[in-house]
Design goal:
Blueprint lengths: L9 H10 L3 E5 L3 H10 L3 E4 L3 H4 L11 H13 L5 E5 L9 H13 L5 E3 L7 H9 L4 E6 L5 H4 L9 H17 L3 E5 L3 H10 L4 E4 L7 E4 L1 H4 L17 H17 L12 H8 L1
Parallel strand pairs: 1-2, 1-8, 2-3, 3-4, 4-5, 5-6, 6-7, 7-8
Helix pairs in contact: 2-4, 5-6, 6-8, 8-9
């Protein structure tokens, strides 16, 4: 009899922080990849709106729709047994009012099967974070480089580089914790700023390009495994070169088909085929 898998819950993450255990998170967009990462023991799977870039081919995350997020979250949820699935709320699905945010987050939970949602921003989304938490939807925050704000930020640029900006980010992190978020992604900020936030908060921080002092780390899986070849962020460690392996394997398949090596030639015809021919 196989051992029963114990799913990761939002309450487990705070316990991990208290015990000093690092939290692991990767993105997933389909059931097959989710199943592999889940089997490896990942703590959280983020169905990120990064799918707009690595799956749909856009230049940013802004074009991603709620319907697309629900579709991919459904797939990841079906492929996952242990990891906590977090669904990104895409651009303009939580900016037009608390009522809209509750409705859209509810769809990611109810239809998509997510165990939590992620929203970007600080004070501007405090009411949303608090209300979602109040109605029972776990919320993960996101500060620093917020990809849905790249038009305002002027591109994918590091944030909180000045003392004033760092102080502002730390204050926003504290307000998000007070609003009820269960964890906070910190993206592309100085390591010392991330360290301060991690010390100040009782909820776990999850870094991406924010140095080694966060309570956990997250990467886009297509970056980590070498599957996205347009650009690789400087903070990414590539654990494999699956993109090149897939290209190489595809070329081998093409050559085998063209040269007649696949399918292999049969020297004898099976009895069933011989019978069908006689018939």
């Amino acid at each position: 009899m196989s051992e029963r898998v114990k799913p990761v819950r939002v309450t487990d993450l705070k316990k991990k922080k208290r015990r000093g255990e690092r939290i692991t998170m990767l993105t997933a967009y389909d059931a097959t990849m989710a199943g592999l990462l889940d089997r490896a023991g990942i703590d959280l799977l983020l169905v990120g709106d990064s799918l707009g870039m690595v799956v749909e081919g856009h230049d940013s995350t802004i074009p991603v729709t709620l319907e697309a997020m629900i579709h991919h979250t459904q797939a990841v949820s079906r492929g996952t047994k242990r990891a906590l699935v977090v669904g990104d709320m895409p651009f303009m699905t939580y900016h037009t009012g608390v009522e809209d945010a509750v409705r859209n987050a509810g769809r990611l939970i109810q239809e998509g099967g997510a165990g939590a949602v992620k929203i970007e921003g600080g004070r501007a989304v405090l009411d949303v974070a608090a209300r979602l938490t109040d109605v029972g939807i776990p919320v993960m925050g996101h500060l620093g480089l917020t990809p849905q704000s790249i038009l305002r930020l002027g591109g994918f640029r590091p944030q909180a580089r000045t003392p004033e900006d760092a102080d502002h980010l730390i204050a926003e992190a504290q307000t998000l914790e007070a609003a009820g978020v269960f964890a906070l992604v910190l993206e592309s900020i100085p390591a010392e700023v991330a360290a301060t936030v991690s010390r100040e908060l009782t909820i776990p921080t999850i870094g991406i390009g924010a140095g080694p002092y966060c309570d956990g780390q997250v990467l886009v899986s297509y970056d980590a495994f070498g599957m996205f070849d347009k650009f690789v962020p400087s903070f990414v460690k590539q654990y494999a070169q699956l993109g090149e392996q897939i290209v190489s394997a595809t070329r081998e398949y093409i050559n085998d088909v063209r040269e007649g090596r696949f399918p292999a030639h049969e020297h004898t015809v099976s009895a069933s085929v011989r019978r069908s021919r006689r018939d």
